[in-house]
Design goal:
elongated; 189 residues
Length: 189
């Protein structure tokens, strides 16, 4: 048994069967408030949830518009908070952050404004901090394999190949490992 309760339909003739179906606007407000109570959401995420609940588009637009007007939905603030939180907490770079925001339905202009708040120096410092945490686990590996693994880790977090390679090279140079024979991926930038 899955532990999920099945919704029972009211028995014909009962008082529950005589009540009119839920007001779509009330359903929309309830869905939005419940979701916003759990975590900040974008307008697109809320619109998707309302579509899944079969709320008519005109009602959804009306409710979402009112929530935006009173400040309960603010994609710009969401994007700014997302960028700072995910960059600080997960070490994600601009490219990865932009992809996550787009996936959540934030428009391109808002995404660009949010990721541009990251200072390139801050991004490089974060890449170095990630390297400091990961480099010890790669000691003893073949230098080429070690470099690929570390550059790949930074690339998966959205760092450009040029920055990733430069940071890895500098960190490994500090350990006394020379990487001059490896190809420089800076033309990828």
């Amino acid at each position: 048994m899955s532990g999920r309760r099945r919704r029972r339909e009211p028995t014909e003739g009962s008082s529950a069967a005589d009540t009119p179906p839920a007001d779509p606007e009330a359903v929309a407000r309830d869905v939005c408030l419940r979701m916003l109570t759990m975590a900040p959401r974008t307008r697109a995420q809320l619109a998707d949830a309302l579509r899944r609940k079969n709320v008519p588009d005109d009602v959804a637009d009306n409710v979402l518009g009112r929530f935006t007007d009173v400040g309960l939905i603010d994609d710009e603030a969401f994007a700014q908070a997302w960028v700072q939180s995910r960059h600080t907490g997960r070490g994600l770079a601009k490219r990865a952050l932009a992809a996550e925001l787009r996936q959540r339905g934030v428009d391109n202009e808002t995404v660009q404004e949010a990721v541009e708040t990251l200072d390139p120096d801050q991004e490089e410092r974060t890449a170095r901090e990630l390297m400091a945490r990961k480099v010890a686990a790669t000691r003893g590996m073949d230098p080429a394999k070690r470099t690929r693994r570390l550059v790949g880790m930074l690339a998966r977090k959205g760092y450009s190949p040029g920055l990733a390679y430069r940071v890895v090279k500098e960190v490994l140079d500090e350990e006394g490992l020379e990487l001059e024979d490896l190809p420089d991926p800076t033309p990828w930038d």
